[in-house]
Design a protein that fits this description.
- The chain is α/β, with parallel strands linked by helices and 379 residues long.
- It folds into two domains: 178 residues, Rossmann fold; 183 residues, Hnrnp arginine n-methyltransferase1.
- Helices cover 31% and strands 29% of the residues.
- The strands form three sheets. Strands 6, 7, 8, 10, 11 and 12 form a six-stranded antiparallel β-sheet that branches. Strands 3-2-1-4-5 form a five-stranded parallel β-sheet, with helices on both faces. It has a four-stranded antiparallel β-sheet with strand order 9-13-14-15.
- Strand 10 and strand 11 form a beta hairpin.
- Helix 3 packs parallel to helix 5 and helix 8 packs antiparallel against helix 9.
- The longest helix has 24 residues.
- It binds S-adenosyl-L-homocysteine.
């Protein structure tokens, strides 16, 4: 039997409608749009999104990322006396409830743990099993629709997606901030930065070389020239965003911040379109083949959770935009502009547009769509 989960919104179904786990990009979206307009479309996308978070394996992936989970635990415990003990907390997107339970261990007076996914049912069971039912109230519902009985001192949320902004969960947290956070309240985390740097990703080089070798080798085997397909295969590989680990040796410039978000002040409009003019310089003689992005977030007190290639691996990995390979020397300038915008057909997806020039070469324009496929691109 599934545990009952409170719905604080009168007249609104507490549970997420049963949808078969599927990708937000799958069709059906267009049909909904024709029938009911954008709101229905967004609702459909959200249903798929929350359905995917009902999968316990996804929560295992996040929790076993000890860089992530330990950072939240330490941030909560280090700030226990000043900001958590005796305070009212809301956990936006509580998942299994792990962050809420950290806050309970740190002496919070009351915690509202909100999640729109059916994982909230398990969160409630876990809260009971750990003896926190008197402190933590699990609420299954969309954070934007939940009515709390009081304002809160602290917002805890792990809202970051790939490349920080993928999934577009941050606007939900900001909505809760504006509606429920007391003046002078605290956000965990309170600052978030996205970075970019030039890369020479070895796995791209390997793929490129292996692909040429394969298609050219067919000449010896079948006496047919299939080599034209090599260019096509490489172009296809380079046309998509890759979520992949990048080792620090593969970073060939200093990073530049793409955005620096003060989470107490930033608005959803600020992040709908992020634009950054960059001016990078290569380090050493290298084969530039990618732009690499990662993010860091900071908690009150200064503790940093970093997903940088210069730090330990995390489940977010790094985000890689493949570029046409160019040979660069020490201090070759690579200048341009990057635009990151929410995709119009699916607000959870992103479009990344890049305009850049290597040294005094031609301006190159590239557009990448960041969708559900971004983790499956290592063909
Ligand atoms: N806090 C948990 C889970 C983080 S994953 C942990 O740290 O392990 C993000 C969670 O936020 C998912 O379970 C997702 O269902 C939930 N979520 C995302 N947007 C939401 C929204 N607008 N309202 C309620 N829950 C949301």
């Amino acid at each position: 039997m599934e545990a009952a989960v409170e719905s604080p919104i009168p007249g609104i179904e507490a549970s997420v409608p049963q949808t078969k786990k599927r990708r937000a990009s799958e069709n059906g979206v267009g049909v909904n749009e024709m029938k009911n307009g954008t709101t229905e479309k967004e609702k459909f996308i959200d249903e798929s999104y929350f359905a995917s978070y009902s999968d316990v394996e996804l929560h295992r992936t996040m929790i076993e990322d000890t860089v992530r989970t330990n950072a939240y635990q330490q941030a909560i415990f280090q700030n226990m006396e000043e900001y958590i003990h005796g305070k009212v907390v809301v956990d936006v997107g509580c998942g299994t409830g792990i962050l809420s339970m950290f806050c309970a261990q740190a002496g919070a007076k009351k915690i509202y743990a909100i999640d729109a996914s059916k994982i909230a049912v398990h969160a409630k069971q876990l809260v009971e099993a750990n003896g926190f039912s008197n402190i933590i109230t699990v609420i299954q519902g969309k954070a934007e629709e939940v009515e709390l009985p009081e304002k809160v001192d602290v917002i805890v949320s792990e809202w970051m997606g790939y490349m920080m902004l993928y999934e577009t969960m941050l606007p939900s947290v900001l909505y809760v901030r504006d509606k429920w956070l007391k003046p002078g309240g605290k956000m965990f985390p309170e600052r978030a930065m996205l970075f970019m740097a030039l890369g020479e990703a070895q796995w791209i080089t390997k793929y490129e070389e292996g692909t040429y070798d394969f298609w050219v080798s067919l000449n010896h085997v079948y006496n047919l020239d299939m080599s034209l397909l090599a260019d096509h295969a490489v172009a296809r590989y380079k046309d998509v965003v890759h979520v992949h680990m990048v080792s620090q040796e593969d970073i060939v410039s200093l990073p530049t911040p793409v955005c620096d978000l003060d989470l107490m002040r930033v608005t959803p409009e600020d992040i709908r379109c992020i634009s950054h003019n960059f001016n990078l310089a290569s380090m050493g003689s290298r084969r530039l083949n990618s732009m690499v992005l990662w993010f860091d977030v900071w908690f009150p007190g200064g503790l940093k959770l970093s997903t940088s290639p210069h730090n330990e691996d995390t489940h977010w990995q790094n985000t890689v935009l493949p570029l046409t390979t160019a040979t660069v020397k020490q201090d070759t300038p690579v200048c341009g502009v990057i635009n990151i915008t929410q995709d119009l057909s699916n607000h959870r997806f992103l479009n990344v547009d890049l305009k850049y020039r290597v040294d005094s070469g031609e301006e190159i324009i590239r557009g990448f769509k960041m969708d559900d496929n971004c983790t499956d691109n290592d063909f």
